[in-house]
Amino acid sequence: MKFSFDISDYAVRVFGLSTKEEFEAFAKSNEEADINAVNPKPKHVPMMTARRLSSGCRLGVDTGMELISNNEIDAVIYSSRSGELEHNDKLLNAISNNLDCSPTDFSMSVHNCGVGNFTILSKKKIPSTSIAAGVDTFMQALTEAYIMLNSGYKKVLLVDYDVNIPEFFKAYADRTMPNYPKAVGLVVQKGNSVSVETNNTDECEDSESSLVNQYQSVVFLKHFVKFMEDKSPSLSSFLLKGNLNNWRINFSA
After folding, report:
1. Mean pLDDT across 205-228
2. Is the backbone of residue 134 left (phi > 0), alpha (psi -120 to 50) or beta?
3. CB 218 within 8 A of CB 34
4. Alpha-helix runs per DSSP H in the chain
5. pLDDT for the residue 211
6. What whole-number distance in Å separates Cα of residue 127 and Cα of residue 156?
């Protein structure tokens, strides 16, 4: 598999960072990520709505709202590996203790919670989808975005978010699965500045790319930002570890 695209805008909420400037400084510094940092309150989500959303979904909807306020979007994709496990955990606890389930937890427990709340708040009647694919959730969402672009949509909004994994589910999660709330948003359009190709022959060059305590989207955006800063050939390619195959990412100016 091989495909390419351009990124015309991005936004991020992770490690307590919420602006491009903050994330770019972090990406260039090579400092260790603080996965326990408190993320700022959402700027683009009403408080009553924010209170009902899980930690990661709140970040995801806020990120999407920031990007759509500055870009004309034709379609939207929300992806999440952990989905709405926070709400699911509350529901299971209520059931196991013979308590009434919270209507909010019930309505917000579905995987398309993020994209659903985004389309409601943005009032955009555009095609939308929600994706989960384990380790490769973000890369499969990029593949979906590429398909949408080749179906006639000019700009696709992709938001990849995740939640804090509740203690109950940790025993069933892969030991290498990251565990922190985050949201990475990209505005994707046709182009060739970013190319992706499946690769099963090379080993990942660094521990960060092997997803040790990192999500694919965070690793991808960090490499993208570092390349865009100085266009160095040494930063123009990296290997992102996947499940059944790895992904070779190439950047060009």
Report:
1. 76
2. left
3. no
4. 20-29, 47-50, 55-70, 85-96, 103-107, 113-122, 137-149, 167-170, 216-230
5. 39
6. 10
79 strand-pairing partners: 131, 160
Q: Which amino acid is at 96?
A: S
Cα separation, 99 vs 101, whole angstroms: 6
* Residue 88 token pair: 């699911």
The tokens describing 109, both together, are 């427990």
Alpha-carbon radius of gyration of the chain: 18
CA nearest 187: which of 215, 153, 229, 227? 153
Count of alpha carbons within 13 angstroms of residue 46, beta-carbon side: 7
pTM, rounded to two decimals: 0.90
Instruction: Please give the Cα distance from 53 to 57 (Å, whole number).
Output: 6
Sequence-separated (6 or more) residues with CB below 8 Å from residue 250: 194, 195, 196, 197, 236, 237
Alpha-carbon distances, residue 152 vs 53, 113, 127 (angstroms) = 32, 26, 12
Superfamily of domain 2-190: Thiolase/Chalcone synthase (3.40.47.10)
SS3 label, residue 198: strand
CA distance 199 to 105: 40
Give the tens place of pLDDT for each residue, 32-71: 888 889 998 999 999 988 888 888 889 999 999 999 999 9
- Please provide residue 207's backbone torsions phi and psi, each rounded to the nearest 5 degrees: -65, -30
- Kindly state the helix (H) or strand (E) to which residue 194 belongs, with its residue range: strand 182-199
